[in-house]
Amino acid sequence: MAGAPDFDLYRLSEEHTMLRETVRALAEAKIAPHAAAVDEEARFPQEALDALTAADLHAVHVPESYGGAGADALATVLVIEEVARVCASSSLIPAVNKLGSLPVVLSGSEELKKKYLGPLAKGDGMFSYCLSEPDAGSDAAGMKTKAVRDGDFWVLNGVKRWITNAGVSEYYTVMAVTDPEKRSKGISAFVVEKGDEGVSFGAPEKKLGIKGSPTREVYFDNVRIPADRMIGEEGTGFATAMKTLDHTRITIAAQALGIAQGALDYAKGYVQERKQFGKPIGDFQGVQFMLADMAMKLEAARQLTYAAAAKSERVENDLTFFGAAAKCYASDAAMEITTDAVQLLGGYGYTRDYPVERMMRDAKITQIYEGTNQVQRIVMARNLP
């Protein structure tokens, strides 16, 4: 056992550990104080964006060659997890910046990467991802948004729904049908800018949770964009979209981990303070068993998520399975853990004076977006390792 101290399997590197500590300190100092108000007022967490951008943590995944931090997939997970621990809405800033821009990273031309990843890295504009439509959710290949070639331009028409940070983001990766005969192989990807003529936004959705992150429809009314804004070759958009989700589902798992950790931390502190029958309720075995189960589920979810992040970085063959499994398991665990945290706080847990009810509401969306957990199970079944 002489080599035991250097046995780094299943342990974060020193750099990753330091990153977690840095992000946690920043999140607690600059983001946590505004979390309740952001939720209550359903307003964009500008304080979080400012703090994350100032610390270069708003889009850590952007490669160094385009002015980014060049963080690996696990580092990105740690940033999102630690921000989500105090405010799920704010964690959508680094998460959706990755989701929106990853198609450009994976499939974009060198010119496109330079044009859009640089401003993203500098903090000059956020990126959103436009895949879902009113009639094309889980069946994304059934989309109706069209792009028609017109000389050196493409003209886009259609509606995208459930677009996170819509209206705030400067840039949008948009999937549109360029050849209606080919279904998924007739879909192409484009970068659309907020300022392009014909781009407009619906009213913000009134949501159960993540209220600080605006979710709106995006409308494209004869939006003319230069042909060089197509991401990759014509007809490859859907494949790029699915490849993107293999990587970014792991960021949703990270978000779920953070929300669950925040709820567990709060509940753990509460049961030590709250007294009934002359002693802290944390002394009762029934309460101890609940906490033990919460911590166990969270740790299992974390190990699966970090393993998936490592596979994302190495682009291993079983990434599709692991990405879906991490997202599905972590989000189901987060819903159970936050619900139990509310239970442990009793009547107080049900009020907005305590953060766990917000965490419970925020956890729910992690089971739904970037592919419902029912769809994740289909994905897993088709990609069993």
TrEMBL record:
<feature type="domain" description="Acyl-CoA dehydrogenase/oxidase C-terminal">
    <location>
        <begin position="235"/>
        <end position="384"/>
    </location>
</feature>
<keyword id="KW-0560">Oxidoreductase</keyword>
<dbReference type="InterPro" id="IPR046373">
    <property type="entry name" value="Acyl-CoA_Oxase/DH_mid-dom_sf"/>
</dbReference>
<dbReference type="GO" id="GO:0003995">
    <property type="term" value="F:acyl-CoA dehydrogenase activity"/>
</dbReference>
<comment type="similarity">
    <text>Belongs to the acyl-CoA dehydrogenase family.</text>
</comment>
<dbReference type="Pfam" id="PF02770">
    <property type="entry name" value="Acyl-CoA_dh_M"/>
</dbReference>
<feature type="domain" description="Acyl-CoA oxidase/dehydrogenase middle">
    <location>
        <begin position="129"/>
        <end position="223"/>
    </location>
</feature>
<feature type="domain" description="Acyl-CoA dehydrogenase/oxidase N-terminal">
    <location>
        <begin position="13"/>
        <end position="124"/>
    </location>
</feature>
<dbReference type="GO" id="GO:0050660">
    <property type="term" value="F:flavin adenine dinucleotide binding"/>
</dbReference>
<dbReference type="InterPro" id="IPR036250">
    <property type="entry name" value="AcylCo_DH-like_C"/>
</dbReference>
<keyword id="KW-0285">Flavoprotein</keyword>
<dbReference type="InterPro" id="IPR037069">
    <property type="entry name" value="AcylCoA_DH/ox_N_sf"/>
</dbReference>
<dbReference type="InterPro" id="IPR009100">
    <property type="entry name" value="AcylCoA_DH/oxidase_NM_dom_sf"/>
</dbReference>
<dbReference type="Pfam" id="PF00441">
    <property type="entry name" value="Acyl-CoA_dh_1"/>
</dbReference>
<dbReference type="Pfam" id="PF02771">
    <property type="entry name" value="Acyl-CoA_dh_N"/>
</dbReference>
<dbReference type="InterPro" id="IPR013786">
    <property type="entry name" value="AcylCoA_DH/ox_N"/>
</dbReference>
<dbReference type="InterPro" id="IPR006091">
    <property type="entry name" value="Acyl-CoA_Oxase/DH_mid-dom"/>
</dbReference>
<dbReference type="InterPro" id="IPR009075">
    <property type="entry name" value="AcylCo_DH/oxidase_C"/>
</dbReference>
<dbReference type="InterPro" id="IPR006089">
    <property type="entry name" value="Acyl-CoA_DH_CS"/>
</dbReference>
<keyword id="KW-0274">FAD</keyword>
<protein>
    <recommendedName>
        <fullName>Probable acyl-CoA dehydrogenase fadE25</fullName>
    </recommendedName>
</protein>
